[in-house]
Amino acid sequence: MANPSADLYGSDRMLLETVRGLGELGWTVVVAASQSGPLDRELLAAGASVEVCPAPVVRRANLSPRGMVRLAVDVLRGVPAMVRLVRRVRPDVVYVNTVTIPFWLVVTRLLRIPTAIHIHEAEGASSAVARYGLTVPTRLATRVICNSTTSLEVAARSGGRRSRMQVIPNGVAGPDRVEPPRDSVVDPRLLFVGRLSPRKGVDVAVRALSALRRDGTAASLDIVGAVFPGYEWYESELRDLVRAEGLTDVVRFHGFTPDVWPHLRQADVVLVPSRAEESFGNGVIEAALSARPVVVSDHTGLKEAAAHLEAAVAVPADRPEAVADAVRGLLAQWPQTRARALRDADESAERYHPARYRRAVSAVLEDLGSG
């Protein structure tokens, strides 16, 4: 199994669930990640072996001339190590997690090993060249798993082979216990969970909080997450924005934490204000599993994830005032909001149970292994 990182965000957690599913079937699993990180400990606990292999990771920065040069250097350094690892492990099947590590597909095709790629991206607004460049390598895979209808449609439009694709919704494990929302709320506690990046719209959440504070709402905001290396400038801008808006006392930066459930239990309303496309909304489902209402950008996979939720309010992207209005609306009908959120928790626990996900992905890999 190949993964671009060793973090514990959405696609990383889905890889971990896949490892657990294969472990239940008695498979021997080796995970190759481009770097070490907190995922390693979880993989080892699930029974997998972990190898650090410098496989090239394709990012938006590689689309510039300078970025292409850096990528070429990474390819020259990484591909021989990838080939050596595959020849040493001699896998029956290779599973490639995300389209950002396409050179694994080249290696497995050359070595004639059946391969599944799992698409967790939906870059519909990217340039046609970028979409094509990220998607066309999936044609080298034997099977293509998409985490949502949104990601399947984007991949199919961008050069992927629809006949090899299937949708398997993410499996999201809920908290050990669901703590009902507070009976009444006079000091609403807002929560953002995820990567700190412009595309995730964390600054939109901060500006929405500012709008609520201006009208006298005693709201606060907890931010749980960290930046990608190289995006430290964005966190600095966020902190500057918090100071400029006079919110230093009511915005708390917690950094990355692998256990988001304590933060969700303390929250009243969860904000998912992503500007850019999302293939799926893990954060939306985590809010629902915790019986917390959620305000979510009305597009792509976020819209798909929120479609069945009663206590979700969809708003236009990049509109802080719309986010604030949605929060006001949820608070104005809090007894009804609370009841809807509790129903969402029950329904989502069934719909996104990890066991369903593990069975579905394992079946694809078993079929490849027996072919």
Based on CA atoms alone, the radius of gyration comes out at: 21 Å
CATH topology of the largest domain: Rossmann fold
Number of helices: 14
Cα shape: globular
The helix content, as a percent range, equals 40-55%
Mean pLDDT: 94
Examine the secondary-structure arrangement and name the CATH architecture of the largest domain: 3-Layer(aba) Sandwich
Strand content: 5-15%
- Please name the fourth-level CATH homologous superfamily of the largest domain: Glycogen Phosphorylase B
**Major beta sheet, specifics?**
6 strands, parallel
Order of helices and strands: EHEHEHEHEHEHEEHEHEHEHEHEHHH
Number of distinct beta strands: 13
Q: Kindly, what is the distance between the CA atoms of the first and last residues, rounded to a whole number of angstroms?
A: 18 Å
